[in-house]
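# step 3/5: fold
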Amino acid sequence: MTHPIAVRRAEELRPRPSEDSLGFGRHFTDHMFRMDYTSGRGWHGARVEPYAPLALDPAAGVLHYGQTVFEGLKVFRGGDGVVRAFRIDDHCRRLAASAARVCIPPADPTAVRAGIAAVVREDLEWVPAAAGTSLYVRPTIIATEGFLGVRPAAEYACFVILTPVGGYFAAGVAPVRIWVEEHHIRAAPGGLGAAKTGANYAASLAAAVEARERGYAQVLWLDACERRWLEEVGTMNLFVRIGDEVVTPPLGDTLLAGITRDSVLVLLRDWGVPVSERPLSVDELREAHRRGELREAFGTGTAAVISPVGAFGFADGELQVGDGGVGELSQRLYDAITGIQFGSVPDRFGWMTPIV
């Protein structure tokens, strides 16, 4: 960014919640970052301003044609007091890639990173210090031009909001039961599955509600063509440990390239654990269970980090994973990643970026 980021501070500050009752995504800080895009001018007007509702034309493209993308990353206060972001550059690059997929002019990752750092510095006191807590960062881009007609908008807003959050699991890492979804689909080849768009999440809601009504925490998505190949679990990437091998579905245009997924792959290979990025079918999952080799399964994502799967539910019954508890690798990966994030484990991979 060639110009400094302007700062307009809030006149009245919000009361900060206690760190033992944060929840997830319920409290928002005093400020937000914003910059705007106009066709012919590009991205401009970078500033930090008080957190406030957005004023939108009722015909804004985001409301009618769904032109919106977002990211989610976390900032941590280490035991040394230093505030650091986890893999911030990767998240900023992925935001640009998602934007390009839905014809949004990508915001320069360097500019988005600078905006995130600026608003975090302004609301530094909101970064919690209690064990398991963090500051969740949500960069978002929306189409703001008012018009009716199916085409890319000519005006956009990029903004970043912050929310202090507690641990995703109130009682620590715990296994969840997952429903294998054989009717609804998350994404089809050639679609938006590899982009972090609002449409992907809207498409997942009906299946998630139905899964909860059956007593399951989330769904395991299958491929759109054959309903045979395992894809994502809920809003996370999937890993399955069969015997000594850890398998995760390969990236393509139906799977999001998860930042936590990549971190898990780096760690497993660093530890010498056999890991494969290859297709994994329902039949192979069932056969591994039959042979007693279905040792672990877990989802990976920014919010939960590692979410162990205790059982997969089908119309004809359940497959218990391992002993139904938290697997050895699941716990080790969770401890390693959160240790790096909070500074209790050396950051050998350069994943943490100091904000202050």
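# step 4/5: annotate
The mean pLDDT is 96.
# step 5/5: archive (pending)
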